[in-house]
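Task card 7
Instruction: Convert sequence to structure tokens.
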Amino acid sequence: MDAYAFKQQYNLYYTGIYGKQKEPTIEDWDKKINLITGAKTIDTALELFQVIEAIPPFQDVQSGFSYYWFKDGTYPSWEKCPDASVLEYKHEERDEFVKEHPDKWMDIKCKYEAKIVSLLMLWMGNSNEAFTTALKGIVIKIRRARITIQLWYEGSAEDVRDPLKQALECKGMEIKDMSISDIKESSSRRGSRSSSRKDDRDNSRSRNESSDRNNRNHSKRRE
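Output:
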């Protein structure tokens, strides 16, 4: 057996786009999520770093890109992990900061990328058995001015919280403890607000078009 073989196998999925790709309009989760390790699971430290080298780095992905590192046999969806708990950490900057200081924001992203590699090795390498056992998967979401790290787990939150703090090297950071149900409810509210804003824009556009037609008709009558 390889001296650096992991005790469990792992997979990497992703959603989103990178480079100059265009965002596809896909609502179905199973069609939206892509399995990178379909040919072979990650079984060793060497394979982990080969996958890391092959995937798009943080600086190349567009806003909305997410990485899903999960144990083999665990599918990263709310429906497949209904009983999981989630620890969530966010690093967020102001939009103005990202616009005015793109190099600094890029540096922040690169530093988090390195810390997440350490977190993956801590998890997969089984140096902390309780952490390896409890953790089902790690989700990393890259947004325009925010990086979100979610740890999906079962069991004690402390088995997961301390290794997360250790890997991110941040003692005073705020970490939320949620359930999958909490995340679904929050996502549903965001979807409702987004839909409401879209309806408002559509209604406003419709009113403007109607006003334009009325103005044109009024102008024609005067002529």
